[in-house]
Amino acid sequence: MEASGHSAGKSSNGVHTVYISNQSRQIGFATPETTAEVLTYLHRDGVLVLENAIEVKHLDRLRELLQPAAEEIARDPTHHFNFGRHTHNVDQAPPTMLDLMFEDVWANRIAVSILQSLLGPNLMCHYANGNTALKAEGRQPVHSDIDKPHPLYPFAYAINIPLSDMDEENGSPELWPGSHRDSFIQQHVILPNDEWGFAIKPALVEQRRNISPASPTDSFVIQPTWIHAPSKVTLPLETKALVDGWKVNSGLEYAVHWVDGDADHEEVDSDDVEYSTGNSKWPLLESLMRPTPESISSL
């Protein structure tokens, strides 16, 4: 088990988990056996847990900084709340201080090696943010994070990194394994004025069984470079050598807006992410970016 870097997978509340051995983590890539298992479950479910993929002390340091700041952010009337203040679900991005930008968080070699098998070798990260779910009476509506036309095949992956153990008792998001296979823009309805964005049509919500697995906070959205996505991650110029080194070590490149001085991670707003494409061919293929009529007859 240790030699292969692979162990028998298990399920956590309906979501498959693959344990990454310490040896694989030290080497910095997933074994062929692990890759085969991960790809199979990602194609089937659209979500999977990699256990033991990140050094715990790195997560502890991030939590020590971000947890006390969460309540302070929540009191800020100008801060962005996902789907309105009543949800108490706030944007809280990872810090961009040089000593807290850990490679196994920002450019995890195990995750990148798996994504290269899915998306190809030229990967680009366009977005780095996080959500903190504070105690609240309200909740977010059921929704997809992409409210633009997009292909049915995998074209981007979100790498979600938990800083605490989370489940349905403390604010874990609901995830629908398998819903990625027929996700498209026509499944959405526009929310009323007190909330912003799109939600899944109520009839579809009732049809699907929702599952709340142990779930994450920080998210990194990674795509192949041919999509030419416009969004960039704002980072301080002093971290450029570090970020450039990640590309050499893992193969993951960041689309970056460099700034002199500090880059305030508390100002990152998920409303600013742009899911469009700079690839001129992609919009011409929009009619193919949905299931066949037979598969959507119930809509």
Structural summary, described in words:
This is Phytanoyl-CoA dioxygenase family protein. InterPro entries: Fungal_Metabolite_Diox (IPR051961), Phytyl_CoA_dOase-like (IPR008775). It holds the Pfam family PhyH. There is one protein chain. With 299 residues, the protein is α/β, with parallel strands linked by helices. It has one domain (80-292). 24% of the residues lie in helices and 18% in strands. It has helices at 22-27, 32-45, 56-74, 103-106, 109-119, 202-207, 240-250; strands at 10-12, 15-19, 49-51, 89-91, 123-133, 157-161, 188-190, 198-200, 218-224, 233-236, 252-254, 256-259. The strands form four sheets. Strands 4, 5, 6, 9 and 11 form a five-stranded mixed β-sheet that branches. The chain has a three-stranded mixed β-sheet with strand order 1-2-3, with helices on one face. Strand 7 (188-190) and strand 8 form a beta hairpin.
Note the topology.
Layout: E1 10-12, E2 15-19, H1 22-27, H2 32-45, E3 49-51, H3 56-74, E4 89-91, H4 103-106, H5 109-119, E5 123-133, E6 157-161, E7 188-190, E8 198-200, H6 202-207, E9 218-224, E10 233-236, H7 240-250, E11 252-254, E12 256-259
Parallel strand pairs: 2-3, 5-11, 10-12
Antiparallel strand pairs: 1-2, 4-5, 5-9, 6-9, 7-8
Helical percentage: 10-25%
Strand content: 15-25%
The helix count comes to 7
Mean pLDDT: 77
Number of strands: 12
Contiguous runs where pLDDT drops below 50 for at least 5 residues: 1-8, 211-218, 295-299
> What is the number of independent domains?
1
Overall 3D geometry?
globular
Structural class by SSE content: alpha/beta
N- and C-termini, Cα separation: 46 Å
Return the string of H and E elements. EEHHEHEHHEEEEHEEHEE
Major β-sheet annotation? 5 strands, mixed
Protein name: Phytanoyl-CoA dioxygenase family protein
